[in-house]
Specification:
Elements: H1 5-12, E1 51-52, E2 59-67, E3 77-85, E4 95-100, H2 108-114, H3 121-126, E5 127-132, H4 149-157, H5 167-187, H6 189-192, H7 197-211, E6 216-221, H8 223-234, E7 239-245, H9 250-254, H10 266-270, H11 272-288, H12 302-318, H13 326-336, H14 343-355, H15 380-390, H16 400-411, H17 413-420, E8 448-455, H18 461-470, E9 474-482, H19 492-504, E10 513-515, E11 530-532, E12 535-537
Parallel strand pairs: 4-5, 4-6, 6-7, 7-8, 8-9, 9-10
Antiparallel strand pairs: 1-2, 2-3, 3-5, 10-11, 11-12
Helix pairs in contact: 1-13, 7-8, 11-12, 11-17, 12-13, 13-14, 16-17
């Protein structure tokens, strides 16, 4: 959930286990008067001409044409790349589940196929699952500020990896992102102003109409939660079911709708630094509590393992291992905490390599999805266009060093990573033409299910608590575990509750807490446990 970190996470996403089958009835509910939030009634619903993405493939692809500016629907149009996997249960289809993989900057045409098996089996049986590359991203009409891949690679190689350390690197970093902003302003300044979350919410509403569903069924993770919350407040009467997993606090994203200069950058307002520090502490504690056979970086006890990590980072400040500097290592650690299995084991192995003075082997990329463009360009400017245009950040690059030190004082190394993750916004050349700053309490046609993980290195559990409180009609489901998103960190318990909710609208009881199926560095458990109030039920999904 950062300009840089989200890209690293996308490369590490792994499919989780499917959940057991749950049978239920159709979703019914009250009919609410529609507030569609649209600026003009003359917007044309796109026609989706579905075709196999590749010959004899299981995924279908289409292109949707939508207005660049919903305030001028007769003007320039842009393309959205859309992908679908049909419901697998003959005669059981309920409708379409729209999925946004977060970021911002996640290309749905890549990440939905890669993570398709992570959706519960009964959801795959009952719903077509549809995703898309949001405007400005991937294979849609994209923000691309370079004339060639070689130019983008040259720009990327000219700045510090991870974040800057020292005055000279800070100057290089700031100059690099100022240059990026200038390049983007020259390439397509009009597009930069129209890739906001509000624009994406309007696109989602058109896609809902295009598939013919009377109401929206939606799953959004990470940044996809703020997109979902925005849709829910622009189109409250059109919400059939909505799962928001690993949530952004809406007030943190919008800086409490303040018109004044923000004091903190987005990710420090969210508390990503503190959450990452707490998750890292859990990683080191659990690693130290087991053997090197399960966690290669273990030093025999939690304290000794934490001390070992501190010694490693201090050593890397003075003596990098090849290209593995202190900053690159810290940023790799933060992104390496996103996926527990096999991510935490792999991260421990990289840290142990560095401890012995060996450069870690490059990570194996996930299999390419069966789509025409499995590796679209997803340069940093794409995420920046959404984040920087949408969420307020300090505009003076000179303040970020002091913010970094304050972040480090409260969250250690992770504070440095998350401070600089938003610095590109200081010199970003565009503000979104249309944003939504609240209120967030529009009464939706059906309740929203909010899922939060207790140790998440990007979107803290407090963000889920805040989202559930901000929305008018929401239920919080707690995932007692680790990693970024419950979707890719498997919990049969979470999957069971989500499946019931998607199929017939049933919500978990208030206060429900689930466990992940497999703890870090431990042997698998057969099922995820669930706690309801003061009682416990193990193996609730069977």
């Amino acid at each position: 959930m950062s300009i840089r970190g989200s890209i690293a996470w996308r490369r590490r996403c792994a499919a989780a286990l499917a959940a057991p089958v749950i049978c239920s009835t159709m979703f019914i509910g009250p009919e609410l008067a529609r507030f569609d939030g649209a600026k003009s009634p003359s917007v044309t619903v796109p026609r989706l001409d579905w075709r196999h993405c590749i010959p004899k493939g299981q995924f279908d692809c289409a292109t949707a044409k939508v207005p660049l500016d919903y305030g001028d629907p007769g003007g320039r149009t842009i393309d959205l790349a859309v992908i679908r996997r049909r419901a697998t249960g003959p005669g059981q289809r309920i409708g379409t589940l729209f999925f946004n993989p977060g970021g911002p900057g996640g290309p749905g045409t890549v990440q939905m196929p890669q993570n398709y098996e992570s959706f519960p089996q009964e959801v795959r049986e009952r719903f077509d699952i549809v995703s898309w590359d949001p405007r400005g991203i991937g294979s849609s009409t994209a923000v691309n500020c370079f004339d060639s891949p070689e130019g983008a690679a040259a720009w990327d190689s000219g700045k510090p990896a991870g974040f800057p350390v020292g005055e000279q690197q800070r100057a290089t970093w700031i100059a690099a992102y100022r240059d990026l902003g200038q390049r983007c302003r020259r390439h397509d300044p009009e597009l930069l102003r129209h890739v906001s979350t509000v624009d994406n919410a309007h696109d989602l509403e058109l896609l809902r109409q295009a598939v013919g569903d009377p109401r929206l069924t939606y799953a959004g993770i990470s940044y996809g939660t703020i997109l979902g919350a925005t849709y829910a407040n622009l189109f409250p009467g059109k919400v059939r079911a909505m799962v928001l997993d690993s949530n952004i606090d809406p007030q943190a994203w919008t800086n409490h709708a303040s018109q004044s200069e923000p004091r903190l950058p987005t990710f420090l307002r969210m508390g990503s630094d503190r959450s990452a520090a707490a998750t890292l502490d859990q990683f080191l504690t659990l690693c130290g509590a087991t053997t090197t056979a399960r966690c290669a970086f273990s030093a025999g006890s939690p304290k000794e393992t934490r001390d070992k990590f501190h010694q490693l980072t201090q050593r890397l400040r003075k003596h990098p291992v090849g290209t593995w500097t202190y900053a690159r290592t810290v940023s790799d650690v933060v992104s390496g905490l996103y996926v527990v299995h096999p991510g935490w084991t792999d991260l421990a192995g990289r840290l142990q390599d560095l401890w012995h003075g060996r450069a870690p082997e490059p990570a194996t990329p996930p299999p390419s999805p069966p789509v025409p463009h499995p590796n679209p360009y997803t340069g940093e400017e794409q995420a920046a266009a959404v984040l920087c245009g949408d969420s307020p950040n300090p505009r003076d690059p000179a303040v970020y060093h002091a913010l970094e030190e304050a972040g480090a004082a409260r969250a250690g190394d992770a504070g440095r990573h998350w401070t600089w993750a938003a610095e590109p916004c200081a010199t970003w050349p565009a503000q979104a033409a249309d944003t939504y700053d609240g209120p967030w309490n529009g009464l939706t046609a059906h309740p929203v299910l909010v899922v939060g993980t207790t140790y998440d290195p990007a979107t803290p559990y407090t963000g889920a608590q805040a989202m559930a409180k901000e929305l008018a009609n929401a239920r919080l489901l707690t995932n007692s575990g680790y990693g970024h998103t419950a979707l890719i960190n498997s919990s049969s318990c979470i999957n069971a509750y989500e499946s019931r909710y998607f199929i017939d609208g049933s919500l978990p009881p208030p206060g429900t807490t689930c466990q992940q199926d497999t703890p870090p560095f431990a042997a698998p458990r057969p099922h995820g446990g669930v706690t309801i109030g003061e009682s416990a039920m193990v193996g609730a999904a069977s």
